[in-house]
Amino acid sequence: MRTIRRRAGQREAAMDDTTLQALTSAYQQSPDNLDLLGVILGALRDRGAEADRQNLLDQLDPESIGDPAQRRSAARLLLTHDRPNRALDFLDDDAPQTRLQRSRVLLALDRRAEARRDYEAAIAASAALEDPDLAAELAVRVSEVEGQGQRPRLRVLSNDDTTREEVARVLAPAEETVTFDQVGGLDEIKEQIHKRIILPFQKPKLFARFKKRVGGGILMYGPPGCGKTLLARATAGECSAHFINVQISDVLDMYIGESERKLHELFEQARQNPPSVLFFDEIEALGGKREYRREGTAAKLVSQFLSELDGFQRDNQGVLVLGATNVPWAIDPAFRRPGRFDRVLFVPPPDRLARQRILEILLADRPCAPGLALAPLAQGSSGFSGADLENLVETATESAIEASIESGEEVPIQLDDLSAALRTVKPTTLEWLTTARNYARYANEGGQYDEVLAFLDRHGRSR
After folding, report:
1. Domains defined along the chain, listed by start
2. Which residues contact 263 (CB under 8 A, 6 or more apart)?
């Protein structure tokens, strides 16, 4: 039995020798077949035949290989077989794939700064080439701060009463300024805001001459995702005002009297830094109808809010208070009194032209196929909010990213990607419009929902 096994091993070894010799002969007949060369070099290294392996590597000549892809393959072979200096001779163009391969070679030569530059240039030209492992190898670990021999000290902005969320908000960087150019559609509302809000901030002396105060309150309502928050930020950007985005957690507190105190401090902060815009999103959580509030503390918070808006000792000159809600019928009626939220603006779903403009804004900084026709998409997305359109673009972007990963190069967003996303993404405004229709028809005291009725009358036509 041992004799049989030994003879079988000898036959297998002989077969390996024969196969290797046949592969070598085949490569000599087609020296452009670098994949075959890679198999041969791997076999020679396993056998320890260093002289033969080095001889084959020395035969690689950059002058005899003109195709850039072939040159990159040759460089890859040389790098794999520990010849990075020779590999650089094959990587002399600036194609993104070549820069990525050159980055690996330069890293092997410990020329880290040059390797990082080539890697960043390759990714900037084609994001599909991103390589997390290579990026991690190229990362620089800073052991000490320049000009100091010790690590920088961290200032802790906290005390016993500060929550983790509050610390995160304090340390968060300021959001970039937004203007009306970045808000698609809503031209009528932007015009109203410009006349009633922005001009008083821009020409305070003229308005003071006519004894027209600068500031006041505006309540925006409409379906979720239609741009109320973005409009608030854009209004602050157009006014060059300090924007204070008030979250519910910034005000509500479990201890009696603390919610009112926090609300007062927010208004004081705005008064001390005019011009300022105080923005309350989901304002019904702070200013809901008192008749439905069982807790006395909730009613006190509403009263405090009203007092801050137009109290006897309050000077809100230069302070604009913006509120946004999806349920205006839940807001305490006292907020609508002149001098408080005396201007109520309906923010509807975008029409066809606005949807096309929103799609253009959302696709502006993404790789897209040239001549992308967005008009049919805008026509077919009736009832979509701005958030729905963003979801549509994100879904199409995922398809383009998957195609880029599969192909190994950047594949732009195609019309087919957007059309396929349009078949899967559904509008989210219809439920809100159904509810709003009932309030507009049966609870329209003082004509406060006339804008909703006008919108619903037009709804269903070509928009």
Report:
1. 14-138 (1.25.40.10), 167-346 (3.40.50.300), 352-428 (1.10.8.60)
2. 251, 286, 301, 304, 305, 308
Structure tokens at 447: 């004509």
Whether omega for the bond prior to residue 275 falls within 30 degrees of 0, making it cis, is: yes
Helices within 81-182 (DSSP H only): 84-88, 96-108, 112-125, 132-138, 164-171
Mean pLDDT along residues 398-409: 88
Convert the pLDDT of each residue in 220-262 to its tens digit. Answer: 888 888 888 888 888 878 877 777 888 888 888 888 888 888 8
Helix %, strand %, coil % of the chain (to 5): 60, 10, 35
What mean pLDDT value characterizes the chain? 77
DSSP characters over 206-259:
HHHHTT--SEEEEEEE-STTSSHHHHHHHHHHHHTPEEEEE-GGGT--SSTTHH
Residue 463 has pLDDT above 70, yes or no: no
Candidates 407, 231, 210, 435; CA nearest to 323 is 231
Number of H helices, E strands in the chain: 22, 5
One-letter amino acid at 331 equals I
Secondary structure class of 280 (helix, strand, coil): strand
Q: What 3-state class would DSSP assign to 141?
A: coil
Helix axes 352-363, 386-407, angle to 10 degrees: 40
Kindly tell me if the per-residue pLDDT of 316 is higher than 80: no
Buried b (16+ CB within 10 A) or exposed e, 174-207: eeeebebeebbbbeebbeebeeebbbbbeebeee
Which of 291, 270, 282, 459 has its CA nearest to residue 382?
459
244: β partners:
278
pLDDT higher than threshold 80 for residue 79 = yes
Residue 47 clears pLDDT 60, i.e. is over it: yes
Query: Token pair for residue 69?
Result: 């892809």
pLDDT of the residue at 311: 59
Q: Given the structure tokens 């096994």, which residue do they identify?
A: 5
405-452: pLDDT as tens digits: 888 888 899 999 999 999 998 888 888 888 888 888 887 777 777 888
